[in-house]
Design a protein that fits this description.
By secondary structure, this protein is of the alpha+beta class. It is built from seven helices and four strands, in the order H-H-H-H-E-E-H-H-H-E-E. It has a four-stranded antiparallel beta sheet. The radius of gyration is 15 Å and the shape is globular.
C-alpha cells in the first residue's frame, strides 16, 4: 500500500470517527461486522485451508483480512488453546485517533473488538478475541491481542514470561 492509499484510509476513518458518540460507534461496529462477514463469505474457499487448529486458523484469518504479515503481528506466546500476538501493523483507526485526539482504548473496544470476535467465530464458535488495553498503541509500541478457545483462560503475555 502506498502513502496516498494509507492517507486516504486515514482520512476516511477520521470522517467516520469525527464527533462519533456511543451510538455512532455501535452503528460503525455493526457495519464492520457486516463487512467482515461478507468478506469471509467471499473468501470462504480460500480460507477453508487455513489450519486444522482453530486458534491458528483464526490468527491466519486476521492476517488475511487485514492484509498483514506475521512479522507485523508476531506471536509471542502460543499453546494448544491460545495465542498472544503483538500487532505493529499500519492501522488507519490508530492514525485517525491520534489526529483527532481520541483514546484508542475507548474507540477500539467499541468499534472493532466485537466485529473481530464475530469474524473469528465463523471458524469456530468457541473462539474469542480480545486486547490487553494496558498494551495498546499509541500507549505502547504494539497492541497486545489474544485469541483463545472459550473454555481456556485468556491471560496475557506477562503471565508466560
Amino acid at each position: 500500500m502506498n502513502a496516498q492509499e494509507r492517507e486516504d484510509l486515514i482520512q476516511r476513518e477520521m470522517a467516520r470517527l469525527r464527533d462519533a458518540d456511543e451510538a455512532a460507534l455501535c452503528a460503525l461496529n455493526e457495519d464492520s461486522i457486516r463487512r467482515r462477514i461478507a468478506w469471509f463469505e467471499e473468501n470462504r474457499d480460500r480460507l477453508s485451508r487455513l489450519s486444522d487448529d482453530p486458534v491458528r486458523a483464526a490468527y491466519a484469518l486476521l492476517l488475511a483480512r487485514f492484509g498483514i504479515t506475521s512479522d507485523e503481528a508476531p506471536i509471542i506466546f502460543g499453546d494448544e488453546t491460545r495465542i498472544v500476538f503483538h500487532s505493529q501493523n499500519f492501522c488507519p483507526t490508530l492514525e485517525a485517533c491520534n489526529r483527532l485526539g481520541l483514546d484508542t482504548r475507548y474507540v477500539c473496544k467499541r468499534l472493532n473488538e466485537d466485529a473481530t470476535n464475530r469474524l473469528i467465530q465463523l471458524i469456530d464458535p468457541r473462539l474469542r478475541f480480545s486486547r490487553n488495553y494496558e498494551y495498546l498503541r499509541p500507549y505502547s509500541p504494539f497492541c497486545e491481542e489474544m485469541i483463545w478457545l472459550a473454555d481456556a483462560k485468556p491471560g496475557d503475555a506477562r503471565e508466560v514470561e
